[in-house]
Amino acid sequence: MSKQLGYLVVRSTCETEKPSSRTFVCEVRLAQIVRKGTAFNTCTITFTVGKAELRAEETTLHMYAALDIAAVQVERQLADFVATQHKHRLSTRLKRHFRRDAD
Questions:
Q1: Where do the H-state alpha helices sit in the chain?
Q2: Domain count, the chain
Q3: Which residues contact 22 (CB under 8 A, 6 or more apart)?
Q4: Predicted TM-score (pTM) of this structure
Q5: 46 part of a folded domain
Q6: How far is C-alpha 48 from the geometric centre of its chain's CA atoms?
């Protein structure tokens, strides 16, 4: 049987001045759960970029370790997301460019 001792949610929104830019929302949830006399700390980070949602969850004995590991996971996901978006934009620009040259 598990018992949840504490729960904390931090939510931050960043909007840029450009109307075409995306809104970034980062939500960090920290919880401490006791199972069989041992306290486990869970950190869940949800990073929303436009319609995409990047999420990482980690449970360890130490809260800071859970936070650090989840942050690294989200950083990796964000780097992959940015690379994917850059490739998509680049391929779209190249297709447009070659269409103009063909006409």
A1: 63-102
A2: 1
A3: 49, 50
A4: 0.69
A5: yes
A6: 6
Q: Which domain holds residue 50?
A: 2-74
- What backbone phi and psi angles, to 5 degrees, belong to 99? -65, -40
Q: What b/e readout covers 66-95, taking b as 16+ CB neighbours within 10 angstroms?
A: bbebbbebbeebeeeeeeeeeeeeeeeeee
Tally of residues, the chain:
103
Residue 70 is encoded by which pair of tokens? 């989840």
User: What is the identity of the amino acid at 88?
Assistant: H
Which amino acid is residue 94, in one-letter code? L
d(CA 23, CA 38): 39
Report pLDDT digits (tens) over 25-83: 888 888 888 888 888 999 999 888 778 889 999 999 998 999 999 999 998 998 888 88
